[in-house]
Q: What sequence folds into this?
């Protein structure tokens, strides 16, 4: 059963300032919670229906996990979803520090001022799919632990490290030999360019693109060409969604890696 204080606390975690105060976030849905249980994240408490607990209790890790049985009606009072699932977890926010040395020989996604929660969550899911080892976000990118972001990752938040930092400071500290690719409308055709199997891929803001402070570090400007002939005065769509662009770029980089192997 949920107490009033528990309802108040869970609902407060939908706000960034409260997540930062308590260093906790909420995760909802069976797959997401089960993925987090198998990750390095620490689950503080799980609230679930009796049926869900009965179906999954055997897979719970040993330790001091607090498990509370609740009803569907109680979950509806705290859910951030349109339709509540059978389980909600309160999860500790870990301390996250970037080790630039760990990025050597890997492909890393850098996000400059991504504001849409769905875009960020989907990009993390894309990073998980394509084996990207880390996602590094500007300080103005939407909060990773926003419930809409967490949900959009579909569990990939449990597997992809995400860091926030001043991008200019971060990029200025990287080796000069490291290729930094940035997505620009005036960049070179991604399908014609030579691509390395490691480096940095920068995705810019949904409407403004990559900021000037970050763009100056880009060594290779790339562009995803449109193949649409269009109709009338508009030859093709103006641009791609940030997460779609990230998927296309990651796919092409990984495809080249397979060819090299």
A:
């Amino acid at each position: 059963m949920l107490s009033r204080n528990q309802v108040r606390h869970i609902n407060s975690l939908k706000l960034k300032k409260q997540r930062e105060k308590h260093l906790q976030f909420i995760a909802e849905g069976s797959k997401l919670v089960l993925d987090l249980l198998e990750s390095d994240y620490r689950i503080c408490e799980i609230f679930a229906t009796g049926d869900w607990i009965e179906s999954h209790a055997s897979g719970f890790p040993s330790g001091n996990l607090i498990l509370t049985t609740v009803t569907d009606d109680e979950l509806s009072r705290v859910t951030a979803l349109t339709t509540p699932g059978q389980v909600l977890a309160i999860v500790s926010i870990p301390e996250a520090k970037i080790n630039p040395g760990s990025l050597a020989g890997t492909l890393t996604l850098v996000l400059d001022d991504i504001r849409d929660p769905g875009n960020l969550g989907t990009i993390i899911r894309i990073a998980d799919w394509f084996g990207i080892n880390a996602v590094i976000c500007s300080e103005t990118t939407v909060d990773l632990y926003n419930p809409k972001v967490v949900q959009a990752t579909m569990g990939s938040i449990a597997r992809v490290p995400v860091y926030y930092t001043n991008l200019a400071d971060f990029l200025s500290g990287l080796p000069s030999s490291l290729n930094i690719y940035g997505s620009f409308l005036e960049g070179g055709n991604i399908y014609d360019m030579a691509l390395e199997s490691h480096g940095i891929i920068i995705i810019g803001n949904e409407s403004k693109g990559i900021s000037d402070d970050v763009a100056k570090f880009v060594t290779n400007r790339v562009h995803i060409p449109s193949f649409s002939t269009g109709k009338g005065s508009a030859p093709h769509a103006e641009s791609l969604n940030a997460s779609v662009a990230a998927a296309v770029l990651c796919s092409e980089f990984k495809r080249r890696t397979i060819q090299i192997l």
About this structure: Residues 4-92 form a domain with the 60s Ribosomal Protein L30; Chain: A; fold (CATH 3.30.1330.30). The chain has two domains: 4-92, 100-260.
